[in-house]
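OP here, attaching both records as promised.
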Amino acid sequence: MDVHYTAVATASGRDGKAVSSDGRLDLVLAAPREMGGDGEGTNPEQLFAAGYAACFASAIAAAARGTRQDVRDVSVTAEVGIGGDVESGFGLTVVLRVELPDDLENGRALVERAHEICPYSNATRGNVPVELVVE
């Protein structure tokens, strides 16, 4: 694969800090209250959700490029769930909620195509259940 960009970030744990190599990302990390943490920081699931949502919206734009359809008003919300335990391991689930403009033709087909080309979808395929909800 011809790599176009490499993001670099360092984290000191679920209750710590995450910093990107360029310093643009500098976050306090904290486990959510639902997992016994104080919830006073960002958690890895939120970061994954934000990245997946942004990437998937971009993939929809790429899928629509050949159709000359305007997808500027597309909105993607990613819901990332985590569950499991220390003995059996932890896993993720993802629901992608895609809001499409009312006048968009073949919207579901664009979403399906985006799911085929999105790097996050390709990374999770076969490992993480991903549900696509078109609204």
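Record two, same layout:
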Amino acid sequence: MNYWILKSEPDVYSYEDLVKQKIGTWDGVRNYTARNNLKKMEVGDLAFFYHSNIGKEIVGVIKIVKEAFQDPSTEDHRWVAIEVSPLEKLKRPVTLRELKENPAMQHLELVKYTRLSVMSIDKTDFDYILKISQA
């Protein structure tokens, strides 16, 4: 199993929007590194749902339910989308600021590459963030 962070502006598509839909299409990604990460995702992988721009915080856990397919928001075959479903809203959001201030989290792609919208995270860091969200 792999672990990921997926970023979305909450005024465009929020965790709450996904909860209402039950299954959502993660589309509109137009960065090659992010696209390549989407292509690596497998059904059953877990991801954090991160609210970018507004809030700048991890707010929930989602599950990959459909692997990469042609992005329906474009006819350009270079771009892919995936489908996700919500698993749980975090008890307490974990902010980007909190992660940046934590010396143990300086290696995270979320901290180092703030503009990347789809990134990997290892299981140890995923579990750690889940743990601090419970505090």
